[in-house]
Amino acid sequence: MSEYPTQFDKDALLKCARGELFGEGNAQLPAPPMLMMDRITDVSADRGEHGKGHITAEFDITPDLWFFECHFPGNPIMPGCLGLDGLWQLTGFNLGWRGWKGRGYALGVGEVKLTGMVRPDRKKLTYYVDFTKAVQTRRLTMGVADGRVEADGETIYLVKDMKVALSES
């Protein structure tokens, strides 16, 4: 089991972004404005749909978020790539939470389906990441996971086979 808690508030996420949570040279979240969550509500290495780990998080939506002004001026929509990035961020966070060493890197995604939009009138995004594989060997540290993003309870993104690795080089 991890030595870390299973829930993290915004202050803890900012600590992770500064490299203070998992140690220098290990998994970090990006700093605002690229940090795509406000809190992690649950994380594990052995639960989730496949029993290989999971992580859930929330992001509060407010009309003054930076991307609404610049993405399609006059038609404010959160870029879909930011929701995908939030899922990648959480996948890498889970690997660091497990105590695995190295910096996180998104390696790809098998499939992405966007079925809804995030506009300024939304209140909250909820991210769900379920690991299908988590591997740590001498040469490879990698997580493979499926993800889902809900906006106010409505599923708007479905992602299959996200891959994130940790590298010590």
Q: How would you summarize the topology of this molecule?
A:
Elements: H1 10-17, E1 39-44, E2 54-60, H2 66-70, H3 80-97, E3 103-108, E4 111-114, E5 124-136, E6 141-151, E7 154-167
Antiparallel strand pairs: 1-2, 2-5, 3-7, 4-7, 5-6, 6-7
Structural notes for this entry:
The chain is of the alpha+beta class and 169 residues long. Helices cover 18% and strands 36% of the residues. It is built from three helices and seven strands. Strands 1, 2, 3, 4, 5, 6 and 7 form a seven-stranded antiparallel β-sheet that branches. A hairpin with a 2-residue loop joins strand 6 and strand 7. The two termini are 26 Å apart. The mean pLDDT is 96.
Question: Taking all residues together, what is the mean pLDDT?
Answer: 96
Helix content: 10-25%
N/C terminus separation: 26 Å
Reported for the largest beta sheet, the result is: 7 strands, antiparallel
Number of strands: 7
Number of helices: 3
What is the overall silhouette? globular
What is the element string, with H for helices and E for strands? HEEHHEEEEE
Helix/sheet category: alpha+beta
Low-pLDDT stretches are none
Strand content: 35-45%
Evaluate the radius of gyration: 15 Å
Pathway: Lipid metabolism; fatty acid biosynthesis
EC number: 4.2.1.59
InterPro entries: FabA, FabA_FabZ, HotDog_dom_sf
Family: Belongs to the thioester dehydratase family. FabA subfamily.
